[in-house]
Design brief:
The protein is 34% helix and 23% strand. By secondary structure, it is α+β, with helices and mostly antiparallel strands. The chain has two domains: 127 residues, Creatinase/prolidase N-terminal domain (Creatine Amidinohydrolase, Chain A, domain 1, 3-Layer(aba) Sandwich); 223 residues, Creatine Amidinohydrolase (Alpha-Beta Complex), CATH 3.90.230.10. Strands 1-2-3-4 form a four-stranded mixed beta sheet, with helices on both faces. It is elongated. The chain binds zinc ion (ZN) (2 copies). One zinc ion (ZN) binds next to loops.
Length: 356
């Protein structure tokens, strides 16, 4: 944690930020270790403060030894931070613009008109994108819990079961296997509904010969995993097999070739152009992947808009999909860490398509 605090302070100096108010929960956890649901951080070159209310004082002291714990009556009492910096003779306060409401901004501005407020975007997130080895271990552990849960649920995946039953069984196995919570609602989308990339499980009964896409993850030590597998219940039709093979080739193509130094949009483009060449370019309506860590969607963004360069120790998904309205969809998603020699796959579940 001390090292993370040093890193953020160096970045603050480089960007002329003298006081930084951190309100996003994942960033608070990352920088301080404090996991309480109420509180905020203030970091200056000299001070590191954690403001929280009565309920969390003891927890904050234990979890965040690098921070001085300050009691506030309400966790949205950002005035306390403004008062503190005024006392220190500072007059500019930086906020996380993606995590601060207009109401909070107006209140702060109204009660401290002399303080200049500047906004920062992805300031902590850009540091979080490079994982420490310990974080890789936590995410790999989450991925293993998910692998095992899927293996335990697959025998139940037979014609006649509903999407909801599949998601319930999976959640039970995830919890039993040590997942602290669900990183996101489990997606079970079958038949024509598999064309919905984010089709949350419904009452639909899964029939023989249908596709079923399952997208889920686990949480270990606060870190998430994310994985998708698509199956067909019984012998596949030719088109199902054809599209499955294309998507699988897309995953393998990216997994084999991605290296540090490549731009996110060019990695996305590699698979996108392959699908276009095969006539399915318009059926891949989302990005190739996203970073995973304390949050299930974080930097880097592997999409046609992604300008960042990939670096070693980034963790992200490779998840191409082909979706055809009224027919169905197929997505395969692996979680990977970028090593000097290329991608190491953290999700170990097999990629067999046909069940039963
Ligand atoms: Zn996913
Ligand atoms: Zn994903």
């Amino acid at each position: 944690m001390d090292q993370r605090l040093n890193t953020i302070r160096r970045k603050m100096i480089d960007n002329n930020v003298e006081a930084f108010l951190i309100t996003h929960r994942s960033n608070i956890i990352y920088l301080s270790g404090f996991t309480g649901t109420s509180g905020f951080l203030l970091v200056t070159s000299m001070d590191a403060l954690l403001f929280t209310d009565f309920r969390y004082l003891e927890q904050a002291g234990e979890q965040a030894p690098a921070f001085e714990v300050m009691r506030v009556e309400s966790s949205a009492n950002y005035s306390a931070a403004a008062q503190f910096i005024s006392k220190k003779g500072l007059n500019t306060l930086a906020l996380e613009e993606a995590h601060f409401s207009l109401r909070e901004y107006n209140q702060l501005k109204g009660s401290h008109p002399r303080i200049k407020i500047v906004s920062l975007y992805n300031f902590v997130e850009e540091i979080r994108v490079i994982k420490e080895e310990k974080e890789v271990g936590f995410i790999a552990a989450a991925a293993r819990i998910a692998d095992q849960a899927l293996q335990n649920v697959l025998p139940l995946l037979k014609p006649g079961i509903s999407e909801l039953e599949v998601s319930y069984e999976l959640e039970y196995q995830l919890r039993k296997g040590g997942s602290e919570k669900l990183p996101f609602e489990i997606i079970v989308a079958s038949g024509e509904r598999s064309a919905l990339p984010h089709g949350v499980a419904g009452k639909r009964i899964i029939n023989a010969g249908e596709l079923v896409t399952i997208d889920f993850g686990a949480v270990y030590s606060g870190y998430c995993s994310d994985m998708t597998r698509t199956f067909v219940l019984g012998a596949p039709h030719q088109k199902q097999q054809e599209i499955y093979d294309l998507v699988l080739q897309g995953v393998e193509m990216a997994t084999r070739t991605v290296r540090a130094g490549q731009r996110c949009d060019s990695v996305d483009g590699l698979v996108r152009q392959f699908f276009e060449k095969e006539g399915y370019g318009a059926c891949f309506g989302h990005g190739l992947g996203h970073g995973v860590g304390l949050e299930v969607h974080e930097l880097p963004t592997l999409s046609p808009k992604g300008q960042e360069l990939l670096e070693e120790m980034m963790i992200f998904t490779i998840e191409p999909g082909i979706y055809i309205g009224g027919w169905g969809g197929i997505r395969i998603e692996d979680l990977v860490v970028l090593r000097p020699e290329g991608l190491q796959i953290l999700t170990e579940s097999g990629k067999e398509f046909v069940l039963g």
